Structures are given as structure tokens and as C-alpha cells.
Amino acid sequence: MNEVDALAQVLVPRLRMVAAVARTEHVTQAAESLGVPQPTLSRALARVQEEMGIALVERTGRGVRLTRAGQRLLPYVERALEDLREGLADLTGAEEGRVALTFLPTLGVEVVPALLRGFRAEHPGVRFTLTQEPWAASLRRLSSGGADLALTSPLPSDPGLASAVLHTQWLRLVVPEHHRLAASAGPVSAASAAAQEFVLLKPGRGVRHLTDRLLDGAGVTPRVAFEADDINTARGLVAAGLGVSVLPARPRGPLPGTVELDLAEEGADRPVGVVWPRTGGGAPRAAGGGGRGAGAFEPPAVALFRDYVCRVGPRIIPDLTG
Hints:
By secondary structure, this protein is α/β, with parallel strands linked by helices. It has helices at 3-11, 15-24, 27-34, 38-52, 68-92, 111-122, 135-144, 206-217, 231-239, 300-316; strands at 57-60, 63-66, 98-103, 127-132, 149-152, 161-176, 197-201, 223-228, 245-248, 258-262, 269-277. It starts with a helix and ends in a 6-residue tail after the last helix. This is DNA-binding transcriptional LysR family regulator.
């Protein structure tokens, strides 16, 4: 153990004592604020200075004040106490904690702002750390402990993660408006577009994962014209005639210049939901459910926000995604 570690070990249990003496400049008043007898505090002050070999306080008549060394140390003491308070609030306080949320780029335009706006109106003290990233990266962050919750799609099959479906979108074969399939009266198979060039999302995106699974099940190996970063870009490129695509149905109707066709394949859907680390055995919780596993800890603010999302999300997400 080096000298700095040794001094820190001496001082850490007495941080509040140093701060109280600095605040009151009076041993008796400091003892009262800490709820300890004045002789106990006086002995503790003498002991910590002896163990550190540094004078932190000095007497001034009836009171005390910090020495120059104590004054230089005080900002670090106060910062350490505040960091500790914030950490304890994060662990125990539903109204003061922090939620680390990761979410899909497409959900960042309207869905996440709407959820945060509504939740913060009810719980203004809860703070958020936000990360916007694709599906695969989002799940990796959640599994590694870098996030508390993920708003994503599709939902994972990882046994270490639980999830609740908030909304299910249908996947459509999106073609240019003058495409030969555009006039189809009923559902079409993915195989009917096997000869076409495809506009796909980049690997690691949730929609790309669903598209690959669907096309593979239909025996289609797509010829890729372009790999887009996001759904809106893919729609626009289909409208420009660059190719066809498999995308979620657009809530406000097809983008001008495109036609959306029902797919005949089973599993042509895209569940959107909230995912969190599983905190106990059993099946994933249904939306709006409660409970916490005995083998892991979940900050109260995280549970509070997740329950809000499960309650409110199914009402607002259908009109804001796509």
C-alpha cells in the first residue's frame, strides 16, 4: 500500500467529520450535527491528524478552523461526500436515481422524447444517460452492464435478458410504385422478388436481422444494391428505383413513390419492446408486470421507468414508429 492509499484509508471513515467541522467552525456544533458526543469528535479529530501526520484543524479561541492543509483538502472531501450521496441515491432512491437507456436510432426521433417527457413530468428528479445505437450494439451494451434498459427490436432470445413487447409492426415488401409487383392484389411471397436487387439495412441493425431470417426462410439470396444506415434512407432509395426492400409498415402510409405489399411468409413482423437484464428465474415479465428476482439488484429508478414504459409505450409507440 502506497502513502496516498494509506492516508485515504485513514481519512475515508471521517469525511463527514472534517466537513462538519469546516462548516460550523465549532467542535460542539459539529458534534451535534453529526449526532455524536463532543469528546468523541475531539478524540477522533486528534487521532486522524496523528495518523495522517498532517494538521487539518487549529483552535481559534473558542472555535476551530481548517489549517491551510485542511482548506486544500476540503473541496475533495465535499466532492467525495457528494459523489457518495449520488451513488446511494442511485441505488436506493426511486425519485433521485439515474437510468442508463440505450435505444434504436429510429426510436430517437419521437418515441424516446415522448416517453422521457411524460416520465419526467411525473418524476423530475430522475436523470438519464442516453445511448443511441443499432440493435446488436444495444444488446451488447445491455448484456455487459453498460445500460439498464434497451428500447429495441427485435427482442432477444438471450436467457440472461427479459423483455416486454410494446408494439408489433408488420413487415412489408416495399417496391417502387411502377414495379411489376406493385399491382399485386394480395400477399406476395419473398421469393417473388428473388430476382430483384435489394436495398437492405447494414448488418447489426434489427430490421436487417429480421430481413435476413425471412429471406433465408424463403430460399432467397438477395443481390444487394445498397446497405443503408436507417429505415428512412432505405425507403427513399426504393422510391428512387434503386431496388426493393423488406421494411416495417409505415404508420402514415407508404412513402410517395413506393408501394407496400403484404408478405405471405409467417413471422413477417417486427416486435418493438423494452429489454432489461433478467433479475431472477422464470419467464419474461408481461408488460406492466412487477417483481424482482432475489439474486440480483435493480435500482428503483430503473424499475420505475421500465414500468412507466410498459404502461404508456403500447399507447404511444404505434403512432410514432416507422
